[in-house]
Amino acid sequence: MNNSYPVMEHFYTLQGEGLHTGKAAYFIRLGGCDVGCVWCDVKDSWDASKHPVMTTEQIVAEASQYEGRIAVITGGEPCMHDLGPLCDALHAAGFATHIETSGAHPISGALDWITLSPKKFKAPLEDCLAHAGELKVVVFNKSDFGWAEQHAAKVGKSCLLYLQPEWSKHDVMTPLIIDYIKKHPQWQLSLQTHKYINIP
Fold this sequence. Notes:
Elements: E1 4-14, E2 24-30, E3 53-55, H1 56-63, E4 70-74, H2 84-92, E5 96-101, E6 113-116, H3 126-131, E7 134-139, H4 144-152, E8 160-165, H5 170-183, E9 187-189, H6 193-196
Parallel strand pairs: 2-4, 4-5, 5-6, 6-7, 7-8, 8-9
Antiparallel strand pairs: 1-2, 1-3
Helix pairs in contact: 1-2
């Protein structure tokens, strides 16, 4: 059983996206990703070997220094790792466990909230779609609306649906997303609020 993880960075901030926007959260960004999004803003996370290895005890000890009790496991693609030990240790310390994943790998660990953000570069697994609490589709161009609907048809009925403009094109894509949501109100707008207010 895995008890250590390559950690690119870890920090305490506010969640900037989706349902939990604005809540204090401790982010654990794991190294390793084989999805390869061309517009990825954390490409340094892709090579797991470049990042220091931390034990679950070290990760939880760092997180526990802060008041917030939401831990967001992200990447990279965090589901490339066995997250069972990390989730168990975080739960034991009183944290709710959240994850952001592309769904390209099986989800592991006891997770309280699953944000599934599917990418065109590596399709999500059907089982991952079925367990998502929120589906967050990054909109890079107009064709992404149809692609978003394809995945929305595969998630559970209670899954929240979010459209989020890709940051480098947010000035162009945000108005298109607003118009789309007005016509398709089952969707909601997710903005990367942490970038607007200049926090990690």
